[in-house]
Amino acid sequence: MSVTVERPATAPPYEAIEDGREALRVWLRLLSCTNRIEARIRSRLRDRFDTTLPRFDVLAQLDAAEREGQVGLTMTALSRRLMVTNGNVTALIERLAREGLVHRQARSGDRRVQLVRLTPAGRRALEAMTPEHREWLARMFAGLTRAERDRLHELVGKLKTSVESEETA
């Protein structure tokens, strides 16, 4: 009995991927780079600013939402942007609110929904960290030329599209 598997029209033949070893090799290299970069960023945020990467990420996402014209984010929207569960975000937001870095406010018309936004203290904290965070990343990517970084960005974007199309297949 034969089973036919539908593939997106843009996907290469499975034979072109060989037996998966090449894909595994690339995946492990990507994972290794991601883990090393993340570990260095976590360490530097802790040492330099006495904070964590999740705290930095929350402040950065709230800032990005503001720059996009939004007046805060719901907990659900924030957890989607951070790619974590609502429970993880709730505990983190509670701590940041106690420290005066974020403000929570019930949405008018639905008190169950809370909008979270940066406070002036949260903005100052983020503004202190952001230039150094950018510098750390720039130094880690300094071994690549601008053209290589652009090409890597393009290829990783293409990989993301491929992964997303495989999810829906």
Strand portion: 5-15%
Which CATH-level-2 architecture? Orthogonal Bundle
| Cα separation of the termini | 21 Å
User: What is the CA-based Rg, rounded?
Assistant: 20 Å
What is the number of helical segments per DSSP (H or I, 4+ residues)? 6
Largest sheet report:
3 strands, antiparallel
The SS-based structural class is: mainly alpha
Uncertain stretches of 5 or more adjacent residues: 1-5
Structure explained in plain terms:
By secondary structure, the protein is mainly alpha-helical. The chain has a single domain, classed as Arc Repressor Mutant, subunit A. Helix content is 64%, strand content 10%. It has helices at 21-49, 53-67, 75-82, 86-98, 120-140, 146-168; strands at 73-74, 102-107, 110-118. It starts with 20 loop residues before the first helix and ends with a helix.
Give the gist of this structure.
With 169 residues, the protein is mostly helical. It has 6 helices and 3 strands.
Features of the shown structure:
three-stranded antiparallel beta sheet, mainly alpha, single chain, Arc Repressor Mutant, subunit A
